[in-house]
Amino acid sequence: MKIRIADSKDAELIALLARITFTETFGHLFRYKQDLESYLAQTFGVQKIRRGLNKENNVFWLAYMDGLPVGYAKLKKNSTSPFLDGEPICQLQKIYVLKDFLAQKIGKALQDELLDHAADLGFKKIWLSVLKSNERAIGFYQNHGFVTLGHHTFGIGKETFDFQAMSKEL
Fold this sequence. Notes:
By secondary structure, this protein is of the alpha+beta class. The protein has helices at residues 11-26, 33-43, 46-54, 106-120, 135-143; strands spanning 2-5, 58-65, 68-76, 89-97, 125-131, 147-156, 159-169. The two termini are 25 Å apart.
């Protein structure tokens, strides 16, 4: 396994991984496939990902297994949360791994890189949002020291999803 920080030249690769992994993880929750397709185009378009890669407040990582790109992660520095006050905090915005590689502990490796980087930058706390029905992810984060802060909803098309906000001391 190899993990490296991504740059703007990786926009197409991250956009493709993002579309595939999001669909693998959440595609079955959409009653209207057009809502899913619209969200994928809007959120994971190459130009949008490239703009995100170029923002100073974002850091992306790519994970490779045997030379194949299999996952990515995103840290958003200085990201406020309605559930936290005080010191500068950051957000673990994304960790996605292709379904066929989940058992290889790539998600943990990506998380470790991201958390170490955030701590090196001087952040004391990190937060994230996770779909409340995604028990696998919630268990993963709880096993790595994240605690629940509260709940919120997020709408995509005609769907409304319930999320759980979690945080961890760095």
